[in-house]
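Shipment paperwork, digital attachment
Item: protein structure file
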Amino acid sequence: MALVSEESSKSQSSLGSFKTLGLDPRILKSLRKLKWESPTAIQASALPLALSGKDLLIQATTGSGKTAIFVLPMVQKILQIKESKTKEAKSNSVLALVLCPTKELCIQTEECFVQATKTFPGIIVFRSLDPTEAKSGVFSSLEVQFPDVLIGTPRQVSRCLSSFSGKIIRKVKLVAIDEADAMFSCGFEKDLRETLSHAGRNFQSIVLSATLSKEVAIIKTLLPHNLALVRLLNQELPEKKQLKQLCLRVQHKTAKFCVLLHLLKFEKIRGKCLVFCNNIKSSYKLKLFLDSFKFYSCVLNDQLPFNSRHSVVELFNSDQYDIIIATDLAAQSFRSEKKKHTDQEFSLSRGIDFQNVSLVLNFDFPTDSSVYIHRAGRTARGAKRGTVLSLIMPSDEAALTAVQERLKSDSDDATEESENAVEDYFVDMAEVDKLVYRVNDVLSSLSNKTIRSAQLQEIHTELLQSEKLKKHFKKHPSDLVAVQHGNNQTGSKLKRKFEDISEFPEYLAPTKLSTSDAGIEEVQSDTRGVLGESKDDGGAWDRKKAKKQLQKETLDYYKKLGLLKKGKKQSRNKDPLKCL
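Attachment content:
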């Protein structure tokens, strides 16, 4: 996670610079090397208070640079302690503690400390707890010397404290709790209470959250001092100029696949795209669907091992994939999936730094407005612009209304006649309907067995790529052969099966293609964005006539390719495409 220095809503000149904050010259040198000249609006408001030792509760939009608000004061405080000749400077104890809800966020926070101490490495020791050590309960890396800054999830830190009888954080001077509203939903209430009980009562607290929920109010009661609230404009998401929020209404599940294929195939979407689904099965089905049309993507969910998740994020951030299909733990709606072995120290919409995301697509709309807020926060980070597009079915209307009301109450001009934050988006549904046959052909092949095989294939791939198993495979080559034999190659089979269907003839292309550089093209059209709904006024489009014309054109095209069986008469009432 990079510490953001660009400002999205205010000019840089009005926010001053880091020099005016009284930071150590070595920290300022590191910031200059990283070209961080001016603080963001929330940094300019909160950093002076944090540096003066105030206990803070900070609410700001995701991507606004909240991490710097506790990283810089921690580095400053530890430098001052180490230069003093007090007992604290000589004692072997943790001076600062950072609690994060996910393992991925812990690693990104550690990277922030690396960036902030780039010009004076080694003076301050900071360490993110090893997930393997936390799982085993044996912290061999901490036995020689405790770090100055300890970073981990509440569960990891709680296990660490039990190994060292809680002595490790008794002299802690500063405690930061990042993404506080996610702590209880990840199941960390008990661990958080145990951790804070070992920290004494003489420390500065900094609590950060994108939303103010009941969980945050409970966390405040666990801390020794009252927290001063710092927030800007009571706004949970960036302004409309920076973040566009759109919704496209469809009537059924198949319509979602048609619309997404239309947007991708005809380049209505440009740049990197983060797609959210509400359950793991849906995410793998969508991946196989996109693979069939040669839009390659990667899947990220809580059932993948930590190293695999970290690898997927790195591949996406290094531009090896433009589409990532994510499943957020908080949005899963199937009880059967919750009973499986999942990693509670993981959440897709919380804290993970997906770089340069142009579009967040809610393929499945979340039932909770807080989940929507955090999903939308994956784009339009810093000064960059972004778009959120949600595909809305009739069953999602109530959840969309809740999001609209929440965002309307957060805006400054919250009046009854004010515009909705999430605006309607329209596409030419006549063009989208041309893809129905191809979409149904692919979806009919994606049975539950096929989707399950795709999940097993990923497990086999992870086994083959595992660094820990390489030595085992050298000693036991028969095991390697067994794993390779078990790789069912589901994705490759589908690609070969639908190799021809991924090539679109000219008559399926829309009359006007996108010319936008990034994000999603704005289509100016009067067509209602509901698949299967006709428009009766102003030169009505005859859907049945268009369907027959499409069938005739498609049939002629396949005849040219020689794909139809000759000599067989087709029934009048039978769809001519069924003979394929």
